Amino acid sequence: MSGKSKSGELKMTSFFAPYKKELIVGPFCKLVEAVLELLIPLIMAEIIDNGIAKADWKFVLEYSGLIVLTCTAGLCFALVCQIFASRCSQGYGTDVRNALFKHINTLSPEQFDAFGTPSLLTRLSGDINQLQVAVAMLIRLVVRAPFIIIGSVIMAIILNPKLSVVFIIATPIIAVALFFIMRSTIPKYKKVQRKVDDLSAVTRENLSGVRVVRAFAKEEEERERFNREAKQLARAASVVGAVSALLNPVSLLIINLAITAVVYFGGDMVNTGSMTQGEVTAFVNYLTQISLALVVTANLVVIFTKASASGARVKEVLNTSPSIVDGEGVEWGEEGAPRVEFKNVSFGYGGNNDVLQDISFKVYPSKVVGIIGGTGSGKSTLVNLMPRFYDANKGEVLIDGRNVRDFKLKQLRDRIGYVPQRTVLFSGTIRDNMLWGNPGATDEDIWQALRTAQAEEFVIKLPNGLDTPVNQGGKNFSGGQRQRLTIARALVRRPEIVIMDDSSSALDFATDLKLRTAIRHNLTDTTTFIVSQRATSIRHADLIVVLDGGKPVGMGRHDELMRNCEVYREIVHSQEDKEGEHDER
Fold it and tell me: Distance between CA 291 and CA 10 in Å, rounded?
């Protein structure tokens, strides 16, 4: 990504690099259009003074044709400018959006959560749309509006220096009035943008959690909550709109007073012969042009103020350096080394060592590791250190004798099959989702993975089999079916390490047992990590790691831990009691 300053910050202007031609040709065409527009009042003056006044209709027709020709030429230049402005603004917006999306995907989960999904969605859509509008206006109006104002004043001075005093007085008065109006609205626009973020957050929560809302019969409360946020946004926008609405009346009031002065003093000059009627008309036209250009300038200030706030929000993400960076890339491993090794690993969010503390263990190929502990004990965090979703604050995580920080991220993650705690399926078909794990997988590879994941039994009964559509988030499947599909997706890639982060919680005990048996029999060369709340799910693991408050309080096989680890013993007994109570019922 280019455009980094010496301090390492990316500048939003760097995205203009491919559009230099548009940035030059577009404003130039608009400048030519403005010059032609400034000529029209002079032509009108000639028609009035030398055509209508002398009843020379041939002259009137000839100069009327000249006006038509001038306007047509101006229209052509304006259209060319519009084309270049569209190319530049849309291209710029697309490039920024692509760069932002790509960069978001390099951020660690911790950084992603810090920004928040609603805010990132708003930045990808609304903020970049605002930047696109600003770029289009930059090309179309930034040159034209000031040129019209300055050009009109100069033309007025050339026509009649004495009467142009009206221009010299009126123009700064309008500018000052607009300045005070804009100074009042700029902070309010920033507040409106924050309210948009708040409303987006509420909307996303309700749409993604619609089933929970209905389950708790909270529709009315959530509607009220949405209405409250929407009203706050409407209130903030109304205040800005009310103040901004003063732009047109204030400028028109001053301009009309100026026109009155021009007509009054110009009429005296016409009577004395020092000025013609056409020149007075030209003065009025130039005043009108100044008025419109100043209003456009004020609106440009609004647009660029919004764009400045939006650009800062986009740049904030782009200039956030990923906390997880690619390693230099090394050979995969050393012969005879443990498949996975944790050496005195400690980790905490925000740099604190409070989630995991001083964890050490070794796991050799083909072994099954169970990780168990109470809620919040750090189970998921522990396994997330292997694919480098997070980096250890202290100690080392080694795979085949190599520190995970030394691998390229793709090199590392291609060898790990990850099944997240929260099932995630993507729109498409079952086959499309399975190919995420291995784009080159055959149907036989997919069916084998489905068989191991205990998903074959329901997929084979579907009318379209592997071509069965998957709705967004897999909502057309049950929780247990989604979990089995995500397990199969991880197995399709035939990974050397499989991480199952509490990914069988929705399965019944019989299916869970079949799944564990199939994994042990079919993944003979794979090291498997099973994070579970169920003691039965990890009972037969080769190594069980028991966590309590982020600390390892027990390691070993089931029988050893039952003798030596009180925490593990309590977990097992509590679950046996619950199962017994369930059976009695």
Answer: 38
For residue 356, the cross-strand partners are 347
Cβ atoms of 16 and 87 closer than 8 Å = no
Confidence of residue 6 (pLDDT cuts 50, 70, 90): very low
Q: What is the pLDDT of residues 107-166, one digit of tens each?
A: 888 788 788 777 788 888 888 999 999 999 999 888 888 888 888 888 888 888 888 887
- What radius of gyration do the chain's Cα atoms show? 35
Cβ-proximal residues to 394 (8 Å cutoff; 6+ apart), any chain: 344, 345, 346, 347, 353
What distance separates the 2 farthest-apart alpha carbons in the chain? Answer: 118
**Residue 9 CA: distances (Å) to CA of 93, 363, 524:** 19, 42, 49
**Strands ordered across the beta sheet of 543-548:** 416-419, 497-501, 527-531, 368-373, 543-548, 551-556
Query: Domain boundaries in the chain?
Result: 15-318
Check residue 581 and give its pLDDT.
42
Whether 575 contacts 536, CB under 8 Å: yes
DSSP-derived secondary structure for 511-558 = HHHHHHHHHHHH-TT-EEEEE-S-HHHHTT-SEEEEEETTEEEEEE-H
Task: Give the residue-averaged pLDDT of 161-183.
Answer: 78
Cα distance between residue 532 and residue 545, in whole Å: 11
CATH number listed for the domain at residues 15-318: 1.20.1560.10
pLDDT at residue 100 greater than cutoff 80: yes
The token pair that represents 471 in the structure block: 């709705």
Q: Is the pLDDT of residue 584 over 60?
A: no
